[in-house]
Amino acid sequence: MYLVTSRRLNRIKEVLNRRQRDLRIFIENVRNVHNFSAILRTCDAVGVMYVHFYYEGGNPPINREIARGSERWVVLIRENDPVQALRRLKGEGFQIVATALSEDSKDFREADYTKPTVIVLGNEDRGVSAAVLDVADLKVKIPMYGMVQSLNVSVANALILYEAQRQRLAAGMYDKPSLTPEEYDRFLKLWTYDRILERGLSKARLREDSS
Ligand SMILES: C[S@@+](CC[C@H](N)C(=O)[O-])C[C@H]1O[C@@H](n2cnc3c(N)ncnc32)[C@H](O)[C@@H]1O
């Protein structure tokens, strides 16, 4: 049973069919609320389902105006130790592509994003940590020909993810589902039933409290 219109249901199915379970973002300590939120919004647009993050301190900063609800359509996975987390993902078959503005980084368009890939984004001041760079299989950079040394991290994320999308579209990877059938069913139920029921109950509770 679904608690959404058939139009909404079709849209949700389309989105789930295009989600790329093996294209992931790892956010290492991005502090700015606008940046973190804009990264999530691009992930949703490109079809990234799983966003891993390491964040020192409390909750990750999300601005709903900027994220535009994208935080509800991607899965945020909090990691307590970035190096351990990336080693684990490597063990699962992912290549780790770290962004780094160093001499020995490759042009980001040279990476093969059709492989299971985790793209690592770094802190606004310090970039990706040295410990994480050590774990990476590949370092990439977006060429810079201006006076400023780097791009905004959410802009860098968008450029790299759209290159990944370009490669994956060409390889037909958006034409067949990449989520497992279990994942697909779980998210379909969550997005078309559980969450809507939960929201309805919350609203009813609020109405009761204020009456
Ligand atoms: C403002 S930059 C950090 C600059 C830092 N001083 C450094 O040297 O890495 C924040 C993040 O944005 C991304 N980024 C910005 N410009 C980039 C570029 N030209 N190529 C690749 N990643 C970039 C990277 O993830 C980087 O860690």
Explain what the structure shows:
The structure is a single chain. With 211 residues, the chain is α/β, with parallel strands linked by helices. It has 2 domains: 1-19 and 179-211, no CATH class; 20-176, 3-Layer(aba) Sandwich (Alpha/beta knot), CATH 3.40.1280. The chain is built from 7 helices and 7 strands. A 7-stranded parallel sheet has the order 3-2-1-6-4-7-5. β1 (23-28), α2 (33-46) and β2 (50-54) form a beta-alpha-beta unit. α2 (33-46) runs parallel beside α6 (153-170). The longest helix has 30 residues, at 181-210. S-adenosylmethionine binds next to α6.
Q: What is the topology?
A:
Elements: H1 6-18, E1 23-28, H2 33-46, E2 50-54, H3 64-67, E3 75-78, H4 82-91, E4 95-99, E5 106-107, E6 117-121, H5 130-135, E7 138-141, H6 153-170, H7 181-210
Parallel strand pairs: 1-2, 1-6, 2-3, 4-6, 4-7, 5-7
Helix pairs in contact: 1-7, 2-6
Bound molecules: S-adenosylmethionine (SAM).
- What ions, cofactors and ligands are bound? S-adenosylmethionine
Helix content: 40-55%
Q: What is the straight-line distance between the termini?
A: 31 Å
Instruction: Return the average pLDDT rounded to an integer.
Output: 94
Helix/strand/pairing category: alpha/beta
Spatial arrangement of strands, main beta sheet: 3-2-1-6-4-7-5
Total domain modules: 2
Strand content: 5-15%
CATH topology of the largest domain: Alpha/beta knot
Helix count from the secondary structure assignment: 7
Query: Which CATH first-tier class of the largest domain would you pick?
Result: Alpha Beta
CATH architecture of the largest domain: 3-Layer(aba) Sandwich
Spans of at least 5 consecutive residues whose pLDDT stays below 50 are none
What spatial form do the alpha-carbon principal axes imply? Answer: globular
Number of strands: 7
Series of H and E elements: HEHEHEHEEEHEHH
Largest sheet: 7 strands, parallel
Query: What is the CATH superfamily label of the largest domain?
Result: SPOUT methyltransferase, trefoil knot domain
Radius of gyration: 18 Å
